[in-house]
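Most newcomers find our protein records easier to grasp once they have seen one. Read left to right, the backbone structure tokens trace the chain's path through space. Once this layout is familiar, the rest of the handout is easier to follow. The record below serves as our worked example for the rest of this section:


***
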Amino acid sequence: MKKLWQAVYNLFFLPLFYLALLTGSLFNNKIKEGRKGRKKLFENLIIDLAGIDRTKKLIWFHSSSLGEFEQAKPVIEELKKSYNLNILVTFFSPSGYLNSLRYPFADVVSYLPVDKKEDMKRFINLVKPNAVVVMRYDVWPNMIWELERRKIPLFLIDATLREKSKRLLPVLRSFSKNVFSGFTKILTVSKNDMENFKKMGIDPGVLECVGDTRYDRVLSKSIEAKEKQLIKNEIIKNKKILILGSSWEADEEVILPAVIKLLGKDENVMVILAPHEPSVLRLEKLEHYFARNYQTVRFSHLNNYKDERIILVDSIGILLSLYNYADVAFVGGSFKQGIHNVLEPAVYGVPIFFGPKIENSYEARLLVKKGGAEITPDKKKAYRFLRKIFTDEKKRIAMGKISGEFVRNNVGATAKIIERFEKIIS
């Protein structure tokens, strides 16, 4: 059956994917940048590999993009601290690749080739990894099959598989089983995920629930953030801080009317709004929206702060640190395609609210169940929640305590993962 699926994939699915990439690059700058970056992939890889000590073992980590790579960092950094290793990190997305070129714990950073059989063979021949780690879900069949054929230990970390995943549909289940069976170990985030992999037909001996490295990552980053001063104390003194994080326009259409109403009711509330994509156009549209009622200031202009009640974040990469200032936090994506990372505000012991689209986030659903977060599906309920949480200090503290404990009670996945590597890397 595996040979049949390999033929179907390489003769049918992969050519369609190539065609989609080629077409997409005509209209999408991100796809275009990825194709451009891969043109000298092998030349750059040969040069970069020539600069490392090949007497050391090499562990290869692959992530789709920057978000998944954040989950790999706790494992990479612990391995580097404890063992004398080379680390290769690869990305499919240009955002991950370009933003990680200076990552100090990686010896080599590269694009992953598009999953052509011969290119994957060439890539693996050059790299000669002692073990390979794939983060979360970016699984490429020819890559997996070639590593399996060479008997190179292969791990899937922070693995998730929803009960309604298309990979569990009858025909796709057979294909998926023949891909995922190539992993030496699949380390899942939850027991539910592990059970769903069993439904796929994966050998239970390959599966193990160890938790999610994101808890470890947000905890370590929050400790670092508390040592920074991104906003001067005099700006936020005696203020109640509401942070709207990673918001899309679909989120803002629901939440901002509630925020405007809240600002009118409580003069001590200050809003920090961090759009998911803080382009010049997006920031200008937000400034225009608020101008009817309130003055705004951009985060990069805070040295000229003049009592504005709304700060628009025009930088990326600082949201996790900004949540340190929050009394209440909204997490975006929850009125669009799926919620962003709720652990980033939760780690600070902050009450959280969001829209209804949270099926992509196991931890968001758990936070609601435990009482550390609340779903506000429309403008009225968003306002009611905000008004309640800013006037009822006991409720705010209680919800925040649940959020903070939720993160602290789930740290430790990194240590468990490192244990699974010891035989390979020692």
Observations:
- The longest strand covers residues 240-247.
